[in-house]
Amino acid sequence: MKLLHIDSSVLGPHSVSRQVSAAIVDRLRQATPSLEVVYRDLTETPLAHLSGSHLAAAQGAPAPAELGPDLTASETVLNEFLDADIVVIGAPMYNFTIPSQLKAWIDRVLVKGKTFKYDASGPEGLVGDKRVIVAISRGGHYGAETPYAAGEHLETYLRWVFGFMGITSLEFISADGVNLGPEHREKALAGALQAATGLQAA
């Protein structure tokens, strides 16, 4: 069984989402020692954002020579995703949505003919056999009952993206209010870490 671990926070060891995603992976490794883990840090090895040249190449147009390494990277990250049985993602909220580094990765795995397709009845996800677990950290509180619910474009976006690809085994562990003060941060982190230890085995 293969697990793909993705981190996208720019805060390194100070990141809450990184701590929680690592705890999730540790829990699954303990439960399944034979688990094969591939790790990708999107801030250490960032992917370029999509350009007109990327889209043209995807349609079969000749790619500029300088785009070659990036197209190779695209193929690599797509294959990592396709090969994984479980995907664990550390996703902090930056300005109400996902980091741009994570968006660049999504643009490489949300690929027509690979992870979804269209037919006469509309879109169909092609990778519904995966388990996806997302470790979220948010500076404030954005639950449905809060005044800020309309500003939440992280969890809602990721639910849509992975659902579009057919994934129904989707779990979120959230640390909310981490910017409201040290006590709030510690409480939110402790709660998320505790939730990670209670995850079902791989």
TrEMBL record:
One of its GO terms (molecular function) is FMN binding. Residues 1-196 form the Flavodoxin-like fold domain. It catalyses: 2 a quinone + NADH + H(+) = 2 a 1,4-benzosemiquinone + NAD(+); N,N-dimethyl-1,4-phenylenediamine + anthranilate + 2 NAD(+) = 2-(4-dimethylaminophenyl)diazenylbenzoate + 2 NADH + 2 H(+). InterPro entries: Flavodoxin_fold, Flavoprotein-like_sf, FMN-dep_NADH:Q_OxRdtase_AzoR1, NADH:quinone_OxRdtase_FMN_depd. The keyword Transferase does not apply. Keywords: Flavoprotein, FMN, NAD, Oxidoreductase. FMN binds at S9, S15, V16, S17, M93, Y94, N95, F96, S137, R138, G139, G140. The keyword Transmembrane helix does not apply. Binds 1 FMN per subunit. Its cofactor is FMN. Pfam families: Flavodoxin_2 (PF02525). Its EC number is 1.6.5.-, 1.7.1.17. Also exhibits azoreductase activity. Catalyzes the reductive cleavage of the azo bond in aromatic azo compounds to the corresponding amines. Belongs to the azoreductase type 1 family. Homodimer. PANTHER family: FMN-DEPENDENT NADH-AZOREDUCTASE 1 (PTHR43741), FMN-DEPENDENT NADH:QUINONE OXIDOREDUCTASE (PTHR43741:SF4). This is FMN dependent NADH:quinone oxidoreductase. It comes from Bradyrhizobium manausense. The lineage of its organism: Bacteria, Pseudomonadati, Pseudomonadota, Alphaproteobacteria, Hyphomicrobiales.
